Amino acid sequence: MKLITHNFLSSKCMKGVNVGFPLKISASDVKVTEVDFNPEFVARIMQKIDYPALYTATESIGHLEDLPKQMVENYENDEHFLKKVHHALLQLEVINGELICPETGRKFPITNGIPNMLLNEDEI
Amino acid sequence: MFPCQKLRVLEERLQCIEEFERPKVLLEQYVTPSHLGSHMLHTIQSQYGDIDQKIVADLGSGCGALSIGASVLEASQVVGFEIDKDAIDICLENISDHDLTNIDVVQCDVLNLDNTYRSNKIFDTVIMNPPFGTKHNAGIDMKFLETAFKLSNNVVYSLHKTSTRDHVLKTAKLLGGEGKVLAELKYDLPASYRFHKKKCVDVYVDFYRFEVDKL
Ligand SMILES: C[S@@+](CC[C@H](N)C(=O)[O-])C[C@H]1O[C@@H](n2cnc3c(N)ncnc32)[C@H](O)[C@@H]1O
């Protein structure tokens, strides 16, 4: 699971959960994969990214590196910044670990890179 | 016309996809045949430019045929959503056999997916070959369509039985999507999935393009 996917997942599918975002990450195994850098795509997807959640996720898996805490203004033409975001969003992958609902503590296992968001019937 | 990988090359890639080991009939598990899948994806990219540099969702991604095809056609990121762990395991093997690095798979129930996402309209393009809905789960393909419309900020491509065309177009309109049939295809389903008792019945399916509310 890449952090771009994490940035969109929530646990509000569960009964009683209001926001369910961002899910906390506890990672036991993280992989870094080389992915082609496409500044236009990253700039476009940034409009939908929750930046503080991305920052916290990157930090919690121990790969903060030099991602700035605050989002840069006018990032569209800031290749330097977009490259850092590219790395965080698309090159970092949680292979094993857990996603944790911020409201209930319910854990969603991540195995072989696949987050399991399935719920039991009594949780819906 | 948009730049696109050659159809033949795409089809060859899709031909070497491992299929479901023990297909689960209730989940309607069958792989989109490579000649159909490659034609669909080639049309989506070459006619409409809806894959290259896009973020693409594949609902009911199974062994990954459509996800892998979209990745081969240079989607920036593909996310497959699939309920069944066994299918996902085969999909992961296929992704690694094809050396692709831009596909994520999430195990979830598509019928619950819009609540598993923080916000909607994340994806540029949604592609799917949904379960058609047998007696046990009639209407499931319309539920997939409804979810697809919520996730997409632009366009949805899908397959539905030709016999349900009026219903599909009407439902799509109600859900806020303008549908168009791009092609009528003959689909030779494995025997266990035939909708009729008769032998040798091909199933006719429509290949749709739906334009959805941008927002
Ligand atoms: C017709 S197959 C298509 C598989 C693959 N997309 C392809 O084109 O080869 C439908 C897929 O949807 C999955 N599926 C069925 N119901 C589902 C649900 N409620 N949520 C997620 N996936 C589901 C099945 O397990 C199966 O893999």
UniProtKB/TrEMBL annotation, chain A:
<protein>
    <recommendedName>
        <fullName>Multifunctional methyltransferase subunit TRM112-like protein</fullName>
    </recommendedName>
</protein>
<dbReference type="GO" id="GO:0005654">
    <property type="term" value="C:nucleoplasm"/>
</dbReference>
<dbReference type="GO" id="GO:0046982">
    <property type="term" value="F:protein heterodimerization activity"/>
</dbReference>
<dbReference type="GO" id="GO:0030488">
    <property type="term" value="P:tRNA methylation"/>
</dbReference>
<keyword id="KW-0539">Nucleus</keyword>
<dbReference type="InterPro" id="IPR005651">
    <property type="entry name" value="Trm112-like"/>
</dbReference>
<keyword id="KW-0963">Cytoplasm</keyword>
<comment type="similarity">
    <text>Belongs to the TRM112 family.</text>
</comment>
<dbReference type="GO" id="GO:0070476">
    <property type="term" value="P:rRNA (guanine-N7)-methylation"/>
</dbReference>
<dbReference type="GO" id="GO:0048471">
    <property type="term" value="C:perinuclear region of cytoplasm"/>
</dbReference>
<dbReference type="Pfam" id="PF03966">
    <property type="entry name" value="Trm112p"/>
</dbReference>
<dbReference type="InterPro" id="IPR039127">
    <property type="entry name" value="Trm112"/>
</dbReference>
UniProtKB/TrEMBL annotation, chain B:
<feature type="domain" description="Methyltransferase small">
    <location>
        <begin position="41"/>
        <end position="148"/>
    </location>
</feature>
<dbReference type="GO" id="GO:0008988">
    <property type="term" value="F:rRNA (adenine-N6-)-methyltransferase activity"/>
</dbReference>
<dbReference type="InterPro" id="IPR002052">
    <property type="entry name" value="DNA_methylase_N6_adenine_CS"/>
</dbReference>
<dbReference type="Pfam" id="PF05175">
    <property type="entry name" value="MTS"/>
</dbReference>
<dbReference type="InterPro" id="IPR029063">
    <property type="entry name" value="SAM-dependent_MTases_sf"/>
</dbReference>
<comment type="similarity">
    <text>Belongs to the methyltransferase superfamily. PrmA family.</text>
</comment>
<dbReference type="InterPro" id="IPR007848">
    <property type="entry name" value="Small_mtfrase_dom"/>
</dbReference>
<dbReference type="InterPro" id="IPR051720">
    <property type="entry name" value="rRNA_MeTrfase/Polyamine_Synth"/>
</dbReference>
<dbReference type="GO" id="GO:0003676">
    <property type="term" value="F:nucleic acid binding"/>
</dbReference>
<protein>
    <recommendedName>
        <fullName>Methyltransferase-like protein 5</fullName>
    </recommendedName>
</protein>
